[in-house]
Design brief:
Distance between the termini: 28 Å
Largest sheet: none
Helix content: under 10%
Number of helices: 2
Order of helices and strands: HH
Radius of gyration: 55 Å
Shape: rod-shaped
Structural class: little secondary structure
Number of strands: 0
Strand content: under 5%
Length: 144
């Protein structure tokens, strides 16, 4: 059975002097704001490789052969006419060479790339409305 204000038991005073003290009490309640956390998936990250073209310049030394004439004096005592008679109608030829640059490419591993998940903690403010009980004294004599 619920107690009515007229049925309330008088409170004892802390000094122990109970003479003439009538009191009632009630228990007040309030909502508390409680916050929880839930871990949910938000995004998917993938490693996606793609190729970009870059211009590379390398300096390479190349060689080639050139012909040059070397003149020698006719040795003393040689007959110039005899030297000319030894000459044939064949025209001597020299084969000259040069180096040409060959450019090729090959794929070689240069670095390893990894994606790692890092946990980042940040502070966020959360607010919400809560209901709180209040109490007033209502004077019955003032109502009449």
């Amino acid at each position: 059975m619920a107690k009515h204000s007229s049925d309330a038991e008088p409170l004892r005073s802390p000094s122990g002097d109970d003479a003439g003290v009538d009191a009632i009490d009630t228990l007040l309640s309030a909502e508390q704001l409680r916050v929880g956390r839930e871990r949910i998936p938000t995004r998917i990250a993938r490693l996606q490789k793609f190729i970009v073209t870059e211009q590379r310049t390398i300096t390479v030394e190349v060689r080639h052969e050139e012909a040059r004439l070397v003149y020698e004096d006719v040795p003393a005592g040689e007959d110039a006419a005899a030297l000319l008679s030894r000459r044939t109608d064949d025209v001597p030829e020299l084969v000259l060479h040069e180096e040409r640059i060959e450019v090729t490419t090959r794929v070689v591993p240069v670095e390893r790339v990894r994606a790692v998940v890092e946990q980042v903690t940040e502070r966020r403010e959360v607010s919400g409305e809560v209901r709180v009980e209040r109490v007033e004294v209502e004077d019955a004599a003032a109502r009449s």
